[in-house]
Amino acid sequence: MKNIFLTRLEKSNVSNFTSNFGIKFRRVTHKQLSLIYRTILKYVYRKNIIVDKSSNLDKKKCYVFASNHSFFFDGSAIIASNDRNCYSLFGATEQLYFDFHTFFIWISGLIYVNRFDKQSRKDSIEKMNRILKAGNSILIFPEGRWNDSENLLCQKLFAGPYNLSLLNNVEVVPVSVYNF
């Protein structure tokens, strides 16, 4: 089933893609939403999120989390295992289906970008800047898509996390995920 909010996501601009209340609400409810998501993931999908190593990050600061991209629900798993709310840059229109994992990303904070539209790419940067200035973190996948090659450790990386870090004076936190 196609995401019923896709049209709204495509037409939203920097000022109306989320409200200030929405930004604060997501920050406050993140722990509860993550607990619900992880519980459903464990009992319905028979998947556990295991955090091997975690950095001791300042709770008062926001960050740009830059992760590899290797399986369907890695974005939602990273958000659910994080100790803070992260808005996720989401550029796969064909994957914007109204399923459980995408719904969790949407309710946690989704910044949609149409990769083939220059204005959408420009707007997504402004949206991420707005979120960082509001005190929330960003999750971005610098590879831009899943790395489905067994022979390639990492695809070509885009400069998004670096540029966001410079523009907003925030740190980039590398994240590595794998599915087994």
Could you please describe the fold and organization of this structure?
The protein is of the alpha/beta class. The chain contains six helices and five strands. It has helices spanning 6-11, 20-43, 74-81, 100-109, 118-133, 160-168, and strands at 63-67, 86-90, 110-112, 137-140, 171-175. Strands 3-2-4-1-5 form a five-stranded parallel sheet, sandwiched between helices. α4 links the parallel β2 and β3 (110-112). The radius of gyration is 15 Å and the shape is globular.
Would you summarize the structure shown here?
The chain is an alpha/beta fold. 41% of the residues lie in helices and 12% in strands.
Task: List the helices and strands in order.
Answer: HHEHEHEHEHE
Let me know the average pLDDT: 81
Q: What percentage of residues falls in helices of 4 or more residues?
A: 40-55%
Q: Helical region count?
A: 6
Radius of gyration: 15 Å
How far apart are the first and last residues' alpha carbons, in Å?
A: 27 Å
Overall structural class, as computed from helix and strand content, comes to alpha/beta
DSSP summary, beta strand count: 5
Biggest beta sheet attributes:
5 strands, parallel
Order of strands in the sheet with most strands: 3-2-4-1-5
